[in-house]
Every structure is written in structure tokens, then in C-alpha cells.
Design a protein that fits this description.
The complex is a heterodimer of chains A (about 325) and B (about 290).
Chain A: H1 2-29, H2 33-37, H3 44-54, H4 60-72, H5 86-121, H6 126-140, H7 143-157, E1 170-172, E2 175-177, H8 182-215, H9 218-225, H10 230-252, H11 254-267, H12 273-282, H13 286-314, H14 316-324
Antiparallel strand pairs in A: 1-2
Helix pairs in contact in A: 1-13, 5-6, 5-8, 5-11, 5-13, 6-8, 7-8, 8-10, 8-11, 9-10, 11-12, 12-13, 13-14
Chain B: H1 3-15, H2 19-36, H3 38-41, E1 63-64, E2 70-71, H4 82-118, H5 120-134, H6 138-149, H7 153-180, H8 183-190, H9 195-231, H10 243-254, H11 260-287
Antiparallel strand pairs in B: 1-2
Helix pairs in contact in B: 2-4, 2-11, 4-5, 4-7, 4-9, 4-10, 4-11, 5-7, 6-7, 7-9, 8-9, 9-10, 9-11, 10-11
Classes of the chains: A mainly alpha (about 325), B mainly alpha (about 290).
């Protein structure tokens, strides 16, 4: 058990180290941020002063070393554009991204689980075929394009919902979020639905496959022979058993919602981390790019580490294999 | 009858049992034709500055300009015919998607099959890398590459290869592990054939079926991902206008109601990706032994 966790921990650290080399190295080979930052009419002395101030006159290896040392102190450098710590900028925008991702997760479960159960419960019916066809379509539709269509229909044409920004922010139990005001909810609805689209397709498929398996189990036959209503069988027996694996998988994929929110945030001008990274790439704001990528990679590496460790508790086969290595 | 032709005939009989898949295949073939012969089938050359006139900027679908040129799907902000722009865009999108798919297939199946063949430390290192990579969402992998190294055609293709290779490697390894236990591999070993020959002349052809299924679905995914990245301004440069860039160009005009500049390239993208996915989905069912 312990050796397994140690190997995985060592691997995670190695992945983070390689990523930091790749990201830092890559970012510092591309473009010239100085050119974008200073007045084109500035003289040579001014240019040199800015370069020195940003630490760009030192060799890349030295810059990298400073970056690593400071990163361990929780300092990922200051943004070239905003002049504020990159970490602070990202943390400021994190709640917006989290609320978008959470709300879209909620929407996808609410829509996809009933549809998936129906498609698995009556696999031969016309409605089920339409649902499954729709889920393939959902897989094929490029998210950003659907977002554009949403804006066109609901914001430009019908004028029902706003298409940009986060709206009013309410406070509840000390948490600030636009989920707590009506205006905020109207802002979050379209982007969240857009982000949920892909997840809806995959949860429908997952639920359908699960339902089809469960329906063949003895306890369903038993429930039927006891004379329970079909409604009860679906709502209690099937739903309860299917929820556990679905919640596990969907919970694990929460990270992918955060990664994909870069696209949705750009389309809907949602002021989250995703929009920040895209804007920073345009502006060649190196510290923010590096900080965002490192934070999100760290997040994923540790998410996976936790999942791996949890699995060893749940599945003894993993444990034995890990120990023998 | 030639056994190869017979095999193809049997395959086709199996494949054509699903009408949706057949229609999708025909649609995809048409798209492929349009993409390959874009300069011949397009009404105009959208990137020839002599024929494109800014006077025709943002004409609605089904309209004509003063000299009688007809624009079925309207024109974009620079006065380019949308039909032609979409045909040329398909060429770029499919080109990048298919090219990256082929490279990823070669790299992935090389590592997958060799990992299964040699086993040991080599296998666990390769498969560990595959696992780690697959734990990141595809868009994040692409984002890391393009944010760190900048945009460009080669960089986009490299990012797409990196996103896909792990899927091929995992598929190739699992089917190669099954093949390794078969007698023909023992026979080839007894004949003292070289490892390379056994791996790529004997095992690889027998792993092709699942690899092709993964290939179709991954190519659809790659085309969609490239469009997303180009829309964000991180993928292809404006000199290579793929469908994603066309949609992105139209985005700014949308608030003024000029819907066609964004919508039609998106429809073309959707049809392309959906037709590949439907064919791939049917192929997966065909090759899945559990469903027979």
C-alpha cells in the first residue's frame, strides 16, 4: 500500500517538474513581450530598463531557477499587463469559473439522467432512438459554434437572455456568486447550458448502458414479481443503483469541465480563469500563462493521485499489483 | 473468387445493414471530394484578390452583386463568397485532421505494439505515460502546447498528434496482447523472423480493425478540436483559413444580425464531424464481438 502511494506521488512530482520545464521553456522561447509592453517611441535606455525590471536580461536557466524557488513560496510572478501577482489574478477569477462549471454539471445531470434511463428502459422505442441520435449529434457539435447559435437565438433574436458577463452577484452564507441573484442566474444560464452540452451526451450514454445492465439483474425481476409498480422500480431500484457509478465518473470529469470552460468563457465573455488565459496568450503575458497552466496541471495531477489512492482502497487488485512492483 | 474480394464483399454486406451509416459514408465521400478538388468545384477563388471585391461585403444568402455574380450562402466581411470559403476551409480542416490522425496512428501503434511485444519495464513506462496523458482532457493538452509554443500549422498538427497518440497506443497494445498468444506468432518466432518483422508484418495487420474504429472517431475529434483552437485564435494562422477560423471571423458580425458568416461554416463542420462519427459508431458495433 505505502510503496504504491510513494511511487504515484513520485510520478506526480515528476510530471509537474516536466510540465514546468515544458511550459516555462516554451513560453520563454516565443515572442517578445517587451515590444508589446512599451511605447514604440521609447528610447533604448527605457527599453533596457523595462527588460531589467522584468528580469528578462538574465539567462533563461536563471529565470527558470528563480521561477521554481518563488513558485515554492507561492509566488508565480507578476502579470506584465496588470502589474499584480499572477496567482492573485487567477484566484480572483476562479469563483466565476467554478460556479459556471458547477451549474453546468447540475444542468447536465438533470437533463441527461432521465433521458438516459428512458433510453435504457425502452431501448427499442422511437423516442429512445431519437435520444441516442441526439447524443451522437451532441458529441459532434462543436461547443463554441453552439454557443454562437445560442447567443444568436436567445440574445440577439429573441432578446430573452443576456449573452455577456456575469451579471449581479449575490452573497449567501458568505459566498459571493451570481447563482444567488435572478439577474446573475439569467447570465449564467446560456453559458452553463453550452458547457453542459458535451457532458449531457456522455451522461446519456453512460446512464443508458447502466440501465440496460441493471434491468437484467435478479433484483429487478424480483421487484416485478413482488408486484411493485413500474414507476417505483424505475425511481427507486434503477435510479438508486445507477446514481453511484454516474456520480463517480461525473465527479472525476469535473476537471474536464473546467478545462473546456476556456472555450465557453471566451464565447460568452464570462470573466473567469479561462478567459484570462486566452487573453493572456493574446497579450503574451508570460507570468499569467505559466501560472495558469501550472495551477491547472497541478490540480489535475493531484485529482488523479487522489483517485488512484481511493481506488486502491476500493479495488484490492490494484493494491496487490502495486505492492509487487 | 479471389478471397480478398470476397472478404470486402462480406464486409460491405455487414456495413450496409445500417442505412444511417451508409448515408453518412456517402456524405463523407462527397465532403472529401469537395475538399480535395476545392479549387475546381468552388464558384470563385475566395483568396484571389483580383476577384474578391470589398463592395460585396456581407451580402445576404441568395443575393447577387451588380455584375450578376450569385452568392448562394452570401458573402463574408471581406466580400468573399461563403460557398467557396467553406470549400477551401474544408480542405484545410480535413487536411490537418487527417494528417495528424495518420501520424498519431503510426506513432501510437508503434509504441502500443512494441510495448505489448517486449513487455517488462519498457511496457510499464510507455503505458504509464499513456495513462498520465489520458488523465488530462484533450483541450488542456492542446492548450499547453499552443500556449507555450505559439500558434502555427506545424504546432497545431503536433498538438493534435499529442492529443491522439495515446488512444492509438492503448488500443494497439490491448489487441496486440491478444494476438501475441496466437499460434501464428509462435510459428513466426520459430522461423526466426526478426522482431520488427513479427511486430509490423504479422501482428499489426491483425490489430487494424480496432485501430480503424479508433481512427475514425479520433479524426472526427481532431477536426472538431482544431476548429475550436483556431476559433480561439490559438490554432491555425489566418493564412490557413479552416472552418474554425471562418466561424470566428463571423462571430463579430453576429450581433448585427449577419448570421450566415458564422452559421454556414459551422453547419459544414457539423456535417463533416457527424458523418465521420456515425460511420465510426457503426464500425465499432460491427467489430464488437460482444454484440454478435
Amino acid at each position: 500500500m505505502t510503496p504504491f502511494i510513494f511511487t504515484r506521488l513520485a510520478q506526480s512530482v515528476l510530471v509537474l517538474f516536466i510540465m514546468s520545464l515544458l511550459v516555462f521553456g516554451g513560453v520563454n522561447l516565443v515572442g517578445d513581450p517587451v515590444e508589446m509592453l512599451i511605447n514604440p517611441e521609447a528610447d533604448q535606455a527605457e527599453v533596457e530598463r523595462v527588460i531589467r525590471e522584468l528580469g528578462l536580461d538574465r539567462p533563461v536557466t536563471e529565470q527558470y531557477w528563480y521561477f521554481l524557488v518563488n513558485a515554492f513560496k507561492g509566488d508565480l510572478g507578476d502579470s506584465f499587463i496588470f502589474g499584480e501577482p499572477a496567482l492573485k489574478l487567477i484566484i480572483q477569477r476562479m469563483p466565476a469559473t467554478l460556479e459556471l462549471a458547477l451549474f453546468s454539471l447540475f444542468i447536465s445531470l438533470i437533463i441527461a439522467i432521465p433521458l438516459g434511463i428512458y433510453a435504457g428502459y425502452k431501448p427499442e422505442s422511437k423516442t429512445s432512438k431519437i435520444i441516442m441520435g441526439g447524443s451522437i449529434l451532441g458529441f459532434s457539435m462543436p461547443t463554441f459554434w453552439v454557443g454562437i447559435i445560442f447567443i444568436m437565438i436567445f440574445a440577439v433574436h429573441l432578446g430573452w437572455l443576456p449573452s455577456t458577463g456575469r451579471g449581479e452577484i449575490g452573497t449567501f452564507l458568505g459566498i459571493n456568486s451570481s447563482l444567488f441573484t435572478l439577474n446573475g442566474l439569467s447570465h449564467v444560464f446560456l453559458p452553463a447550458l453550452n458547457l453542459a452540452l458535451f457532458k449531457i451526451s456522455s451522461v446519456i450514454r453512460l446512464t443508458r448502458a447502466g440501465t440496460r445492465e441493471i434491468i437484467l439483474q435478479d433484483y429487478i425481476t424480483f421487484a416485478r414479481s413482488k408486484g411493485l409498480s413500474e414507476k417505483r422500480i424505475v425511481l427507486v431500484h434503477i435510479l438508486k443503483n445507477i446514481l453511484i457509478p454516474i456520480v463517480t465518473v461525473v465527479g472525476l470529469e469535473f476537471g474536464s469541465l473546467i478545462a473546456f470552460s476556456t472555450v465557453t468563457e471566451t464565447v460568452f465573455a464570462w470573466p473567469g480563469m479561462g478567459k484570462l488565459i486566452i487573453d493572456s496568450i493574446y497579450n503574451l503575458d508570460r507570468p499569467v500563462i505559466v501560472a495558469y497552466l501550472m495551477i491547472i496541471v497541478t490540480f489535475f495531477v493531484f485529482l488523479n493521485l487522489i483517485v488512484d489512492i481511493l481506488y486502491t482502497f476500493l479495488d484490492p487488485r490494484v493494491r496487490i499489483k502495486g505492492d509487487s512492483q | 473468387m479471389n478471397p480478398k474480394i470476397k472478404k470486402i464483399k462480406e464486409f460491405w454486406k455487414d456495413f450496409s445493414s445500417n442505412k444511417v451509416a451508409v448515408v453518412s459514408l456517402i456524405v463523407f465521400m462527397l465532403i472529401l471530394f469537395v475538399a480535395v478538388f476545392a479549387p475546381l468545384v468552388s464558384p470563385t477563388d475566395p483568396y484571389d484578390l483580383n476577384t474578391v471585391s470589398i463592395m460585396n461585403s456581407r451580402l445576404a444568402p441568395f443575393s447577387e452583386d451588380f455584375s450578376g455574380n450569385y452568392f448562394l450562402l452570401g458573402t463574408d466581411g471581406a466580400g468573399r463568397d461563403m460557398v467557396s470559403a467553406i470549400f477551401y476551409g474544408l480542405r484545410v480542416s480535413l487536411g490537418v485532421g487527417v494528417l495528424s490522425g495518420i501520424f498519431a496512428l503510426i506513432i501510437g501503434s508503434f509504441f502500443g505494439i512494441s510495448a505489448a511485444f517486449f513487455g517488462g519495464k519498457y511496457e510499464s513506462v510507455v503505458m504509464r505515460i499513456v495513462d498520465i496523458q489520458l488523465s488530462f482532457p484533450s483541450i488542456l493538452v492542446a492548450l499547453i502546447i499552443l500556449a507555450a509554443f505559439g500558434k502555427g500549422v506545424e504546432k497545431t498538427i503536433i498538438a493534435l498528434i499529442l492529443v491522439q497518440w495515446a488512444y492509438y497506443a492503448r488500443t494497439a497494445r490491448s489487441s496486440a496482447l491478444v494476438e501475441l498468444n496466437k499460434e501464428y506468432v509462435d510459428a513466426a518466432r520459430c522461423l526466426a523472423f526478426s522482431n520488427t518483422r513479427i511486430m509490423f508484418k504479422h501482428i499489426l495487420p491483425n490489430c487494424m480493425a480496432p485501430l480503424i474504429v479508433v481512427g475514425t472517431l479520433q479524426t472526427a475529434h481532431a477536426i472538431s478540436l482544431e476548429a475550436t483552437l483556431s476559433f480561439l485564435g490559438l490554432g491555425l494562422p489566418i493564412t490557413e483559413p479552416s472552418l474554425g477560423l471562418l466561424i470566428g471571423n463571423g462571430f463579430e458580425y453576429m450581433y448585427s444580425g449577419d448570421y450566415w458568416i458564422s452559421i454556414f461554416p459551422g453547419v459544414a463542420l457539423l456535417i463533416t464531424v457527424a458523418s465521420i462519427n456515425l460511420v465510426g459508431d457503426h464500425l465499432r458495433d460491427m467489430f464488437n464481438p460482444r454484440l454478435h
